[in-house]
């Protein structure tokens, strides 16, 4: 097996991971006010919040999977398969199980209560939580609700491990070197969106679990393709250099394709058509590359705040939605301006999550293990 020498830590990936978590946080605060289905909704919905949600959902979770793939690429440089799987299990599955049992029941209860599907106290609801599977006619959150990302990432990590190990062999390295060379040509880097578009078209052909968009707006199979692409672009420095070089073009094309998608959708176009699937795939890839490019160019430094944020990212992700849902439920009926309520919800949710992490989780070895952030 041919492996490359251990590389220095990429601080841009740490910064972008923290950036992505903040965007997800603001996204979930906005979903409360949007037309999108969610666990709890404000008494008045808002078109602007809906637009924000629709735009962000095109690229935020693909960005997460790309960042995770880059981290996987680095981890496999100095971890055995056994150590890699153990690390993935403790950082992903343990928090997922905690979320299923502890954090999900209050959210499902509030959803059933506010959607007129249950009457009674939370204590009375607890036995019903274990009846059937969520989104399949029941209540048990088998994916931990927003923690589906952890579940999917763990599955992807196991499924792709043989492929990723193969890509580290000399024969595969030759192919990756050739691909990186091709992507230095103008516009070639953007064509990596084609596998995403083709996959999106394929999953639209047949109804089933792989065609569902409950997971952050995309099919699980699309996320798998994005995860593999993320690993590939982390395998050769020329990908990074080209991504950085093409960041402005990616930004322009991201704006153009976003406007085109909005025009098609509002004009009555089908979101499952081949043309829209390709447009959506390229739009997502443009935004992901733009964010990676600017991060690579300007976020190559570390600070004590980054170190703190990097340790807090996973607990913050795990805690943020339950806090937003509970606080959102408490203010849903208030007769107040949307922006005022959004500011209140986001500010107090951020403070609550921050205090829970700083005053409890980071001070307890047990809680650090439960939240997957042990040192």
Description:
The chain is mainly α and 375 residues long. The protein has one domain. Helices cover 69% and strands 0% of the residues. The chain has helices at 11-31, 47-56, 60-78, 81-114, 122-129, 148-166, 170-182, 194-203, 220-233, 237-245, 247-266, 274-298, 304-331, 338-359, 365-370. The longest helix is centred in the first third of the chain and has 34 residues, at 81-114. Mean pLDDT is 93; it is low at 1-5.
* Percent helix: 55-70%
Low-confidence stretches: 1-5
- What is the radius of gyration computed over CA atoms, rounded to a whole number of angstroms? 21 Å
Class based on secondary structure composition and strand pairing: mainly alpha
CA(first)-CA(last) distance:
29 Å
Report the portion of residues in β strands.
under 5%
Largest sheet: none
SSE series: HHHHHHHHHHHHHHH
| Beta strand count | 0
Count up the domains.
1
Kindly report the average pLDDT value. 93
Q: What spatial form do the alpha-carbon principal axes imply?
A: globular
Count of helical regions: 15
Oligomer: single chain
Write out key terms for the chains shown.
15 helices, mainly alpha, 375 residues, 0% strand, disordered N terminus
Task: Give the arrangement of secondary structure elements.
Blueprint (H helix, E strand, L loop, with lengths): L10 H21 L15 H10 L3 H19 L2 H34 L7 H8 L18 H19 L3 H13 L11 H10 L16 H14 L3 H9 L1 H20 L7 H25 L5 H28 L6 H22 L5 H6 L5
Helix pairs in contact: 1-2, 1-3, 1-12, 1-13, 1-14, 3-6, 3-9, 3-12, 4-5, 4-6, 4-13, 6-9, 8-9, 8-12, 10-12, 11-12, 13-14
